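Action item from last week, closing it out:
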Amino acid sequence: MNTLTSQTEYAELSARIETLLQKATKGGGFHSLTLDKGDELARFSLLAEAYEDRIPLMPTKVDAGHA
């Protein structure tokens, strides 16, 4: 997966991120993850961030003079 294209994909990826974060927490920190799992968490986080940057979080106020 190189990009997220839907809210469903984002939700699925967020669940995978949460699982890795819980595993790291139970292990005492990120150092407890294998190198592969740490890399996976970093990649997933970047994908989620890129998706979040592309979606509007709040409606923006339209200036009446420029509508």
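Closing note: The CA atoms of residues 19 and 30 lie 13 Å apart.
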